[in-house]
Write a structure and sequence with these properties.
The complex is a heterodimer of chains A (254) and B (270). With 254 residues, chain A is an alpha+beta fold. In chain A, helix 1 runs antiparallel to helix 3, helix 1 runs antiparallel to helix 5 and helix 3 packs parallel to helix 5. In chain A, 24% of the residues are buried. Helices cover 49% and strands 7% of the residues of chain B. Chain B contains 8 helices and 5 strands, in the order αααααβαβααβββ. A 5-stranded mixed sheet of chain B has the order 2-1-3-5-4, with helices on one face. Chain B folds into 2 domains: 111 residues, no CATH class; 137 residues, Rossmann fold (3-Layer(aba) Sandwich), CATH 3.40.50. Classes of the chains: A alpha+beta (254), B alpha/beta (270).
């Protein structure tokens, strides 16, 4: 029994390893990926197929195809199910539920095989590909490589220009009104800025230089003048100092 | 929204023709041999010709496109049954493999062509109103900023692309209809006031790039907008500044292309 279900033991062990990979720190991304991918693309489908077809002698290509298809179906349905639970589509819930499903399917397959005398996990078919099949496979491989090359060429080019965010969030602080001013860089390199604060068109304060690396933020809080005056903050890049890059404003209330 | 190149159109039409050619034979043999087990697949495959008809309508194209992902499970099975039967009973000969490979390749290529417009097939630079091509870092960052600094669940009015981003990355509640009242107005007029007040719009998100290009999918904000699918010029830039100077309104965010206005003063929001 153990011998004819060796594949199920391996699948169960791999499932536990894959599910446990979710506990690895985020820095160990390659290991998480390597261990986690089988749980999305192979293991649930294999286990489900073994549970549904305990003694059908399928060839390796069919098993691969059905295993992949069933795994994707399982992942989609688990996603739908998780979405309506209180946990939602959380990172930790996926391996737990998919792993549980796989182990459950392994248990069903084990039980169903127990009552059957003979089982061949993988039926060997034929003596190998013919030259014609080899030619077509080679052709398909060339097409796949060409498609990946074209797609990656487009994906690696810069799709969008860098940008810088400017914000002003007014808030009440006792009798005074304050504003939280901020600049955030989404540029591809270090950029230097000048920030001007104007009240009714008069320059009242200036910050320069504000120097930000990609992904960095700068924030400060200022006390705003009485509510009858408009307030405007203007951001300039120092490489184009005469051009207003962005502006935020607060106009006096009714 | 122009015509696809001739070769693409030919491949698309040929692929549809090859499917329609193969379906009756496959359906016949599926019905004869597998109808007890594959009745659902037969039924699904029969829907395919109807989806071709609804592609001729403006709204039907999207429905047909979304349906095809599911229908092709059935179509693939039915046609595969036909091919196997053809091979088993008719002895097509040594060319069978080659003919089927070319046939399947044309169907595959045609499926991509019919299913995806040219601009959507590969990752390339930003384009206005172009679904996946319009999703880029600046829009995502603006939506994340709204979530982090303004909090979730505010009612937001914006264009089609930023609506997706504000709803997903931003955790906001973007309105889907009526938005053209402010996006097709060069000043803050009565329609805009009514829309903002009735729908209790807290934030309006403008994207300057909408004033620089025509939308690839034909609309900027919603299907009922003026000149939908027939725009000949981009949005008027004056649209973007219509709230400037309005008492109590705050232009609280600007990332060069994307600007966010707080309209809460209109209905006394805190």
């Amino acid at each position: 029994m153990r011998r004819k279900s060796l594949d199920l033991i391996l699948v169960a062990a791999a499932t536990c390893a894959s599910a446990a990979s979710a506990l690895l720190p985020l820095e160990a991304a390659p290991a998480r990926l390597l261990l986690g991918l089988p749980l999305a693309f192979i293991l649930p489908g294999y286990a489900l197929m073994a549970a549904i077809l305990p003694e059908k002698k399928l060839g390796a290509p069919e098993r691969l195809l059905f295993g992949l298809g069933l795994s994707l179906v399982a992942a989609i349905l688990v996603g739908l199910g998780l979405n309506v639970t209180p946990w939602g589509l959380a990172l930790g819930a996926w391996p737990f539920v998919l792993g549980g499903l796989t182990l459950g399917a392994c248990a069903v397959a084990w039980a169903r095989r127990a009552n059957r005398p003979a089982y061949e996990p993988l039926a060997r078919q034929g003596a190998g590909p013919t030259p014609g099949q080899g030619f077509l496979f080679g052709l398909a491989a060339i097409i796949v490589v060409a498609a990946l090359t074209i797609a990656s060429a487009g994906a690696t080019q810069k799709r969008a220009a860098g940008f810088t965010q400017l914000w002003m969030l007014p808030a009440k602080a006792g009798n005074a009104t304050t504003a939280r001013l901020g600049v955030g860089s989404g540029e591809y390199a270090q950029v230097k800025y000048r920030l001007e604060l104007k009240v009714d068109g008069r320059l009242v304060r200036q910050w320069m230089p504000i120097e930000l690396q990609p992904g960095e933020k700068w924030e400060t809080t200022v006390v705003l003048p009485p509510a009858q005056e408009s307030v405007e903050a203007l951001l300039y890049r120092l490489d184009t100092p005469g051009v207003v890059y962005s502006r935020v404003a607060l106009w006096p209330g009714p | 929204m122009g015509w696809a190149p001739l070769l693409e159109r030919l491949t698309g039409y040929t692929s549809v023709g090859l499917i329609l050619l193969g379906l009756p034979y496959g359906l016949w043999h599926t019905w004869r041999r597998y109808r007890e087990k594959a009745l659902a697949l037969v039924g699904c495959a029969l829907i395919y010709p109807a989806t071709l008809a609804i592609r001729l309508t403006q709204a039907g194209g999207e429905t047909a496109q979304r349906t095809s992902a599911f229908l092709f499970v059935a179509i693939a099975f039915v046609i595969a049954v036909g091919v196997v039967e053809l091979d088993r009973t008719r002895r097509v000969g040594r060319l069978h493999g080659l003919v089927f490979t070319v046939w399947a390749s044309v169907i595959f290529a045609g499926g991509v062509i019919v299913g995806w417009p040219g601009w959507a097939r590969l990752p390339e630079p930003y384009v206005v109103g172009a679904d996946n091509r319009s999703i880029e870092p600046q829009g995502i960052a603006a939506a994340e900023w709204v979530r982090d600094y303004l909090g979730p669940d505010h009612i937001v009015a914006t264009d089609r692309t930023n609506r997706l981003l504000m709803g997903s990355y931003g955790d906001q509640r973007p309105v889907r209809t009526g938005v053209s009242a402010i996006f097709f107005s060069i000043g803050y007029d009565q329609d805009g006031q009514t829309f903002l007040a009735q729908r209790k719009i807290r934030y309006v998100v403008f994207d300057r790039r909408l004033t620089q290009q025509l939308p690839e999918v034909g609309i900027y904000v919603e299907r009922s907008e003026p000149d939908a699918y027939h725009h000949v010029r981009p949005l008027d830039p004056r649209t973007l500044t219509q709230f400037d100077g309005l008492p109590g309104v705050v232009r609280l965010f600007d990332s060069r292309d994307i600007a966010i206005y707080d309209m809460g003063v209109l209905y006394g929001a805190p």
